[in-house]
Amino acid sequence: MATEHIHFVTGRLAEYALRPIVASLSERMEFDFSLDVLPITVAALMTPAWVARHVQIPQAATRVIIPGYCEGDVTPIQALTAARVERGPRDLRELDEYFGQKPVRDELGAYDIQILSEINHAPRMTLAAIVREAARLRASGADLIDVGCDPGEPWAGVGECVRVLRGEGHRVSIDSLNPKEIEPAVRARAELVLSVNSTNREAAKDWGCEVVAIPDEIATLGGLDETVEMLAAAGVRLRIDPIVEPIGCGFAASLGRYLETRRRYPEAEMLMGIGNLTELTDADSAGINVLLLGFCQELGIRSVLTTQVIPWARTSVRECDLARRLVHYAWRQRIPPKHLEPALVTLRDPKVHEFGGEALARLAEQIKDNSFRVFAERGQVHLIGTGLNIADRDPFLVFERLLHPGFGGADDQHQPPAKMDASHAFYLGYEMAKAAIALTLGKEYRQDEALNWGYLTEAEESHRLRKSTAAPPREKAGPE
């Protein structure tokens, strides 16, 4: 016998699609349920106060689930029942996930890879600009701010730059081979030097900070062992970077050298400069960062150096911050990093729901108000209204058919809108453009909501939804 009774609250239009979903959940999860169809068409127009005036909650209910669009204080509803009142998902097709296991994403907080983010060509920037950039990088997840120097004459302002960054609370590394730049930086409390080889390893004994050891000859790791041994003998803390090379310039062989270095130095700290891939590959950086962070995780490389110069890599630090948590979890749990971190999936959505042609046709039959609904399904943009069901791949043709009945053929008959002002036309055009983008990329489209771009998503402020926060219009809400 079921011990839980869940009372679902919905509007007229969602009832048809909601019933089979809830029935299936009830059977699989063994709970009783009831469905309360309120006298309103659009769930987004509900408010908790309005719901409280119309809802009929059974005494047996243990939970009451209202639509996710019903925003505001739920106290008026909670006052009616001892059952727990909660908001469900905005999209009823996500109820399976809503009732599923606890998302492991909540457990993706741990990591053990440090992110160094380089400010390239720092000598060419004003100190104020450097401070702003450092704050932005730290907010994105950088652990150390790497001050990138230019070849040539030593930068006279490097000490002041490091001093100011330290004063702002940043941990700082210096990216230079020139002891005349490195020495004032470490005196100003830079804690790490990139990099040290045979040209400056003698000077490194006196810096009193950690350094990154690199080979003199990248292809053969020539000189690396000598540099590591000298630094270790002098008590200098170090990390080793065999140097990853771009695709087409020895990428595969360079990964092999990281494996060889780990074999030679099984306990050594290591670093990888992943910017050599993200900055020098014509591809969005997120996937590359995840792959390289995964390699580092498995090999015990506990720090990466990245940059954000080229436009397609301008959010690399944020990507690395998400990626290091993802690969750490996958490595610890010994599972593939799949269905764990949706924020890193930006171009295409992990899952796209569809109502289906029958449900959309029924929706067109039930609508009684003057609003239009836009959907993106089965390769077409759908525009649905009272007695209206138009679908086409091209939003321009959808709009043309809306204004001119019969444009799409003899069967394309409907009453054209009595009034189509500029603002309404702009709104429909904007929404159908989003729907077309969603179809092109394989993304979920929801009217009046931003497309999901993962960690890049910015919530969309909808003029229509802002207006609907007031009590629903009586002609839509139905009789009291």
Name a few traits of the molecule:
37% helix, 15 strands, alpha/beta, 480 residues, 8-stranded parallel β-barrel, 4-stranded parallel beta sheet
What does this structure look like?
It is a single chain. With 480 residues, this protein is of the alpha/beta class. The protein has 18 helices and 15 strands. The strands form three sheets. Strands 5-6-7-8-9-10-11-12 form an eight-stranded parallel β-barrel, surrounded by five helices. It has a four-stranded parallel sheet with strand order 2-1-3-4, covered by helices on one side. It has a three-stranded antiparallel sheet with strand order 13-14-15, sandwiched between helices. Strand 6 (144-148), helix 6 and strand 7 form a beta-alpha-beta unit.
Mean pLDDT: 89
Contiguous helical run count: 18
Shape: elongated
How much of the residues is beta strand, in percent?
15-25%
Q: Could you list the spans in which at least 5 consecutive residues all have pLDDT below 50?
A: 467-480
* Span between termini: 37 Å
Number of strands: 15
Largest sheet properties: 8 strands, parallel, barrel
In spatial order, strands of the major sheet run: 5-6-7-8-9-10-11-12
* Rg calculated over all Cα atoms: 30 Å
Q: Kindly name the structural category.
A: alpha/beta
Instruction: Summarize the amount of helix as a percent range.
Output: 25-40%
Oligomer: single chain
